[in-house]
Amino acid sequence: MGDPHDEPERSSPASSRESRSPKASESRRPAMDRETDAAAKVGDSQKSPHPGPKALKEIRVAGKGLRKPVTWLVGIIITALITGVVGQVTDGWFSSHRHADIGEGPTQVRLMQPFSATGKLLPPYKVNSIAHGGSCINSYESSDPDALRCFSSNEVADPCWSYTTRVVCLGSPWDADALSIINPTITAKPRQSIGPVPWALEIKNPNNSQQFLDCGFAGGTAAEIVAGLRANWDCFRQGQENPRGFAGYALGTPKTKTSQWTVFYAPKNSSQALEAKIIIAWR
Protein backbone atom coordinates (compact mmCIF):
# COMPACT_ATOMS: atom_id res chain seq x y z
CA MET A 1 0.00 0.00 0.00
CA GLY A 2 1.24 3.49 -0.74
CA ASP A 3 1.63 6.24 1.79
CA PRO A 4 -1.55 8.32 2.02
CA HIS A 5 0.59 11.47 1.66
CA ASP A 6 2.23 10.39 -1.62
CA GLU A 7 1.34 12.51 -4.65
CA PRO A 8 -1.57 10.92 -6.57
CA GLU A 9 -1.36 9.94 -10.18
CA ARG A 10 -2.17 12.75 -12.63
CA SER A 11 -5.47 12.49 -14.43
CA SER A 12 -5.75 11.62 -18.07
CA PRO A 13 -6.47 14.22 -20.80
CA ALA A 14 -10.05 13.05 -20.97
CA SER A 15 -10.57 13.73 -17.26
CA SER A 16 -8.85 17.11 -17.68
CA ARG A 17 -11.32 18.09 -20.38
CA GLU A 18 -14.20 16.95 -18.10
CA SER A 19 -12.88 19.12 -15.27
CA ARG A 20 -12.88 22.19 -17.58
CA SER A 21 -16.50 21.63 -18.49
CA PRO A 22 -18.90 24.46 -17.53
CA LYS A 23 -20.90 21.89 -15.49
CA ALA A 24 -17.97 21.25 -13.13
CA SER A 25 -18.15 23.57 -10.12
CA GLU A 26 -14.48 22.86 -9.33
CA SER A 27 -13.13 24.25 -12.63
CA ARG A 28 -12.42 27.69 -11.15
CA ARG A 29 -10.46 26.40 -8.14
CA PRO A 30 -6.67 26.60 -8.20
CA ALA A 31 -4.85 23.47 -9.36
CA MET A 32 -3.07 23.14 -5.99
CA ASP A 33 -6.42 22.96 -4.10
CA ARG A 34 -7.69 20.32 -6.50
CA GLU A 35 -4.56 18.26 -6.00
CA THR A 36 -4.81 18.55 -2.22
CA ASP A 37 -8.44 17.29 -2.31
CA ALA A 38 -7.47 14.39 -4.57
CA ALA A 39 -4.65 13.42 -2.20
CA ALA A 40 -7.07 13.43 0.73
CA LYS A 41 -9.51 11.17 -1.15
CA VAL A 42 -6.76 8.70 -2.06
CA GLY A 43 -5.60 8.70 1.55
CA ASP A 44 -9.15 7.96 2.83
CA SER A 45 -9.58 5.12 0.33
CA GLN A 46 -6.32 3.51 1.44
CA LYS A 47 -7.04 3.62 5.21
CA SER A 48 -7.37 0.17 6.90
CA PRO A 49 -10.98 -0.86 7.82
CA HIS A 50 -9.64 -2.14 11.19
CA PRO A 51 -9.10 0.28 14.12
CA GLY A 52 -5.56 1.09 15.10
CA PRO A 53 -3.87 0.19 18.38
CA LYS A 54 -4.97 3.38 20.09
CA ALA A 55 -8.62 2.89 19.08
CA LEU A 56 -8.52 -0.74 20.23
CA LYS A 57 -7.21 0.35 23.62
CA GLU A 58 -10.07 2.83 23.98
CA ILE A 59 -12.61 0.13 23.05
CA ARG A 60 -11.15 -2.24 25.64
CA VAL A 61 -11.35 0.40 28.37
CA ALA A 62 -14.96 1.18 27.47
CA GLY A 63 -15.78 -2.56 27.47
CA LYS A 64 -14.36 -2.96 30.97
CA GLY A 65 -16.50 -0.10 32.15
CA LEU A 66 -19.65 -1.72 30.78
CA ARG A 67 -18.77 -5.25 31.90
CA LYS A 68 -19.26 -4.59 35.62
CA PRO A 69 -22.89 -3.34 35.51
CA VAL A 70 -23.83 -6.01 32.94
CA THR A 71 -22.31 -8.79 35.09
CA TRP A 72 -24.05 -7.38 38.17
CA LEU A 73 -27.43 -7.31 36.38
CA VAL A 74 -27.05 -10.88 35.08
CA GLY A 75 -26.15 -12.02 38.60
CA ILE A 76 -29.31 -10.47 40.02
CA ILE A 77 -31.49 -12.15 37.36
CA ILE A 78 -29.93 -15.59 37.95
CA THR A 79 -30.27 -15.23 41.73
CA ALA A 80 -33.94 -14.28 41.39
CA LEU A 81 -34.66 -17.26 39.16
CA ILE A 82 -32.92 -19.71 41.51
CA THR A 83 -34.71 -18.24 44.53
CA GLY A 84 -38.07 -18.59 42.79
CA VAL A 85 -37.46 -22.23 41.81
CA VAL A 86 -36.22 -23.19 45.27
CA GLY A 87 -39.19 -21.45 46.81
CA GLN A 88 -41.53 -23.45 44.61
CA VAL A 89 -39.80 -26.74 45.41
CA THR A 90 -39.86 -26.16 49.18
CA ASP A 91 -43.34 -24.62 49.52
CA GLY A 92 -45.20 -25.50 46.40
CA TRP A 93 -44.48 -28.09 43.68
CA PHE A 94 -43.15 -30.93 45.89
CA SER A 95 -43.99 -29.73 49.40
CA SER A 96 -45.98 -31.78 51.95
CA HIS A 97 -46.00 -28.80 54.35
CA ARG A 98 -49.79 -28.57 54.42
CA HIS A 99 -50.14 -25.55 56.73
CA ALA A 100 -47.43 -23.38 55.11
CA ASP A 101 -49.94 -20.89 53.66
CA ILE A 102 -52.50 -21.02 56.47
CA GLY A 103 -52.52 -18.37 59.19
CA GLU A 104 -55.03 -17.65 61.92
CA GLY A 105 -57.95 -17.36 59.52
CA PRO A 106 -61.03 -19.56 59.15
CA THR A 107 -60.75 -23.33 59.38
CA GLN A 108 -60.36 -24.95 55.99
CA VAL A 109 -62.93 -27.67 55.34
CA ARG A 110 -61.79 -30.19 52.73
CA LEU A 111 -63.75 -32.85 50.89
CA MET A 112 -62.05 -35.97 49.62
CA GLN A 113 -62.27 -36.95 45.95
CA PRO A 114 -59.63 -39.59 45.23
CA PHE A 115 -60.85 -40.30 41.67
CA SER A 116 -60.56 -38.22 38.52
CA ALA A 117 -63.56 -37.83 36.18
CA THR A 118 -62.29 -40.88 34.25
CA GLY A 119 -61.80 -43.08 37.33
CA LYS A 120 -58.04 -42.62 37.69
CA LEU A 121 -56.69 -42.54 41.25
CA LEU A 122 -55.37 -39.04 41.83
CA PRO A 123 -51.95 -38.26 43.35
CA PRO A 124 -50.54 -38.48 45.92
CA TYR A 125 -52.58 -41.61 46.47
CA LYS A 126 -51.52 -44.95 45.01
CA VAL A 127 -52.83 -48.50 45.30
CA ASN A 128 -50.86 -50.47 47.87
CA SER A 129 -53.09 -53.54 48.13
CA ILE A 130 -56.04 -55.07 46.24
CA ALA A 131 -59.05 -57.05 47.47
CA HIS A 132 -61.99 -58.58 45.62
CA GLY A 133 -65.68 -58.80 46.46
CA GLY A 134 -67.14 -58.04 49.86
CA SER A 135 -69.70 -55.39 50.70
CA CYS A 136 -69.96 -51.71 51.55
CA ILE A 137 -72.33 -49.69 53.73
CA ASN A 138 -72.44 -46.04 54.77
CA SER A 139 -69.32 -44.74 56.50
CA TYR A 140 -69.08 -44.61 60.30
CA GLU A 141 -65.87 -42.56 60.38
CA SER A 142 -66.46 -39.76 57.87
CA SER A 143 -69.12 -37.06 57.67
CA ASP A 144 -68.78 -37.09 53.87
CA PRO A 145 -72.24 -38.23 52.69
CA ASP A 146 -70.68 -40.25 49.87
CA ALA A 147 -68.17 -42.12 52.03
CA LEU A 148 -68.43 -45.88 52.53
CA ARG A 149 -67.44 -48.53 55.07
CA CYS A 150 -66.31 -51.71 53.32
CA PHE A 151 -65.67 -55.32 54.35
CA SER A 152 -63.56 -57.54 52.10
CA SER A 153 -61.06 -60.36 52.63
CA ASN A 154 -61.08 -59.88 56.42
CA GLU A 155 -60.46 -56.16 55.90
CA VAL A 156 -62.60 -53.44 57.45
CA ALA A 157 -61.86 -50.17 55.66
CA ASP A 158 -63.42 -46.79 56.38
CA PRO A 159 -63.75 -44.32 54.70
CA CYS A 160 -63.90 -45.50 51.10
CA TRP A 161 -65.09 -43.93 47.84
CA SER A 162 -66.50 -45.68 44.80
CA TYR A 163 -66.18 -45.29 41.03
CA THR A 164 -68.39 -47.67 39.00
CA THR A 165 -67.30 -51.19 40.11
CA ARG A 166 -64.23 -50.12 42.06
CA VAL A 167 -63.78 -48.78 45.59
CA VAL A 168 -60.72 -47.09 47.07
CA CYS A 169 -60.15 -46.81 50.83
CA LEU A 170 -57.74 -44.48 52.63
CA GLY A 171 -56.20 -44.70 56.08
CA SER A 172 -55.82 -40.93 56.46
CA PRO A 173 -55.51 -37.84 54.24
CA TRP A 174 -51.71 -37.81 54.68
CA ASP A 175 -51.24 -41.58 54.06
CA ALA A 176 -50.72 -42.09 50.32
CA ASP A 177 -51.20 -45.91 50.40
CA ALA A 178 -54.69 -46.95 49.29
CA LEU A 179 -56.67 -50.19 49.37
CA SER A 180 -58.51 -50.98 46.14
CA ILE A 181 -61.57 -53.27 46.29
CA ILE A 182 -62.84 -54.74 43.02
CA ASN A 183 -66.57 -55.45 42.51
CA PRO A 184 -67.90 -55.11 46.06
CA THR A 185 -71.65 -55.16 46.73
CA ILE A 186 -72.67 -51.65 47.75
CA THR A 187 -75.77 -51.50 49.95
CA ALA A 188 -75.17 -47.98 51.30
CA LYS A 189 -77.99 -45.47 51.13
CA PRO A 190 -77.06 -42.68 48.72
CA ARG A 191 -75.47 -39.60 50.36
CA GLN A 192 -76.25 -40.69 53.94
CA SER A 193 -72.98 -41.16 55.80
CA ILE A 194 -73.48 -42.09 59.45
CA GLY A 195 -70.31 -40.36 60.68
CA PRO A 196 -71.26 -37.26 62.72
CA VAL A 197 -67.77 -35.70 62.88
CA PRO A 198 -64.91 -34.99 60.45
CA TRP A 199 -62.73 -37.89 59.40
CA ALA A 200 -59.45 -36.13 60.21
CA LEU A 201 -58.16 -32.86 61.68
CA GLU A 202 -55.05 -30.76 61.62
CA ILE A 203 -54.82 -28.77 64.84
CA LYS A 204 -52.38 -26.33 66.43
CA ASN A 205 -50.91 -27.64 69.66
CA PRO A 206 -52.25 -25.26 72.37
CA ASN A 207 -49.05 -25.88 74.39
CA ASN A 208 -46.76 -25.06 71.45
CA SER A 209 -47.94 -22.52 68.87
CA GLN A 210 -45.24 -23.64 66.42
CA GLN A 211 -46.35 -27.29 66.40
CA PHE A 212 -49.12 -28.77 64.27
CA LEU A 213 -50.69 -32.16 64.94
CA ASP A 214 -52.36 -34.64 62.58
CA CYS A 215 -55.42 -36.24 64.16
CA GLY A 216 -57.00 -39.32 62.55
CA PHE A 217 -60.36 -40.79 63.53
CA ALA A 218 -60.13 -43.47 66.22
CA GLY A 219 -62.53 -46.19 65.08
CA GLY A 220 -63.86 -49.07 67.10
CA THR A 221 -65.56 -49.23 70.49
CA ALA A 222 -62.49 -49.14 72.76
CA ALA A 223 -61.79 -45.42 72.45
CA GLU A 224 -60.70 -43.41 75.48
CA ILE A 225 -63.24 -41.31 77.40
CA VAL A 226 -61.94 -38.03 78.84
CA ALA A 227 -64.23 -35.80 80.96
CA GLY A 228 -67.21 -37.58 79.46
CA LEU A 229 -66.03 -36.93 75.89
CA ARG A 230 -65.04 -39.68 73.50
CA ALA A 231 -61.46 -39.48 72.20
CA ASN A 232 -62.56 -39.38 68.58
CA TRP A 233 -59.12 -38.67 67.11
CA ASP A 234 -55.62 -39.92 67.84
CA CYS A 235 -53.17 -37.05 67.33
CA PHE A 236 -49.58 -37.39 66.15
CA ARG A 237 -46.71 -35.02 65.48
CA GLN A 238 -46.67 -34.35 61.76
CA GLY A 239 -44.57 -36.87 59.84
CA GLN A 240 -44.57 -39.26 62.82
CA GLU A 241 -47.84 -41.19 62.51
CA ASN A 242 -46.57 -44.04 64.68
CA PRO A 243 -46.55 -44.91 68.42
CA ARG A 244 -43.40 -42.83 69.02
CA GLY A 245 -45.06 -39.77 67.48
CA PHE A 246 -48.30 -40.07 69.47
CA ALA A 247 -49.08 -36.73 71.17
CA GLY A 248 -52.62 -37.00 72.60
CA TYR A 249 -56.33 -37.05 71.77
CA ALA A 250 -58.85 -34.68 70.22
CA LEU A 251 -62.14 -35.06 72.07
CA GLY A 252 -65.86 -34.95 71.38
CA THR A 253 -67.27 -32.78 68.61
CA PRO A 254 -65.65 -29.64 67.14
CA LYS A 255 -67.11 -26.25 67.99
CA THR A 256 -68.16 -24.78 64.65
CA LYS A 257 -70.18 -21.66 65.53
CA THR A 258 -67.34 -19.36 64.47
CA SER A 259 -65.20 -19.42 61.33
CA GLN A 260 -62.22 -20.63 63.38
CA TRP A 261 -63.28 -24.07 64.61
CA THR A 262 -61.90 -25.47 67.85
CA VAL A 263 -61.78 -28.85 69.58
CA PHE A 264 -60.68 -30.03 73.01
CA TYR A 265 -57.25 -31.60 72.99
CA ALA A 266 -55.86 -33.80 75.75
CA PRO A 267 -52.07 -34.14 75.59
CA LYS A 268 -50.59 -37.51 76.46
CA ASN A 269 -50.11 -37.97 80.24
CA SER A 270 -51.81 -34.64 80.99
CA SER A 271 -54.53 -34.01 83.56
CA GLN A 272 -56.14 -31.24 81.51
CA ALA A 273 -57.82 -30.90 78.13
CA LEU A 274 -57.23 -27.61 76.34
CA GLU A 275 -59.12 -25.94 73.50
CA ALA A 276 -57.12 -26.19 70.28
CA LYS A 277 -57.60 -24.35 66.99
CA ILE A 278 -58.56 -26.52 64.01
CA ILE A 279 -56.54 -25.53 60.95
CA ILE A 280 -57.97 -28.12 58.51
CA ALA A 281 -60.95 -30.46 58.80
CA TRP A 282 -61.34 -33.35 56.35
CA ARG A 283 -64.92 -34.58 56.07
Instruction: Please give the share of residues in helix.
Output: 10-25%
- In spatial order, strands of the major sheet run 2-7-6-5-4-3-8
**Count of distinct strands:** 15
- Count of the domains: 3
Pick out the low-confidence regions.
1-50, 66-70, 76-97
Mean pLDDT: 75
List the secondary-structure elements in sequence, H or E: HHHEEEEEEEEEEEEEEE
Sum up the overall morphology in one term.
elongated
- Beta-strand content bin: 25-35%
Helical segment tally? Answer: 3
Describe this structure in words.
- By secondary structure, the chain is α+β, with helices and mostly antiparallel strands.
- It folds into three domains: 52-90; 110-186, no CATH class; 200-282, no CATH class.
- Helices cover 22% and strands 31% of the residues.
- The protein has three helices and 15 strands.
- It has helices at 13-19, 31-45, 53-93, and strands at residues 108-110, 126-132, 135-138, 148-152, 155-163, 166-170, 177-182, 185-186, 200-204, 212-217, 225-226, 229-237, 246-255, 262-267, 274-282.
- The longest helix has 41 residues, at 53-93.
- The chain starts with 12 loop residues before the first helix and ends with a strand.
